[in-house]
Amino acid sequence: MIGNRRIDVDRVHVRIPQHLLEAGVPHLDAEFVSARVELLTVAAAGLGGGLGIELAKQVEDAVRQKDSAEEKPVVELRYSGPTHLKPLAPILTNLAEPPDVWIRVESSIVFDDEAIAADDVLAGEIADDILRYLRTVSLSQIEGPSGMQHLREDLTERARIRSQGRVKELVVQTLVVQ
After folding, report:
1. Among 60, 64, 83, 152, which residue carries the largest CB count within 10 Å?
2. Which is it for the CA torsion 144, 148, 154, 158, positive or negative?
3. How many domains does the chain have?
4. Which residues pair with 85 in a beta bridge?
């Protein structure tokens, strides 16, 4: 150090490994390197696309095999042959319990016989049976899904008995309780 607070660099002898830090020129040309990068990019894209297409084919084949392996459920028709539907007149009556509650039923009968289609007398008798039956029913008997199912079964049975088995089913279209 000198008196004016400067460093004397003439007397500093530091080993600098200049012979190791020689700047060199790359042995490869820049255009050659960029061409190789482009080639690898195109090859990777082509390989990825090919694998994607192959994977899509395998998925399609698996879906086709699954669809063909599953058995389609056979829908059994409830009625076969020429089936007819005859609407009945709406029925309005009060229930047995509580007596101030009214019920309105609109229904139809399902049958196979052509003669019943023109038989308005039988339809009137079935409607009369429904009216008589509903006057004996209490509100608690027809509440809920099971009550509705029991009512439907009872009405169908009464229609079958009245028609001597020619009526297949009584379909309740609307049921209003007020």
Report:
1. 152
2. positive
3. 2
4. 110
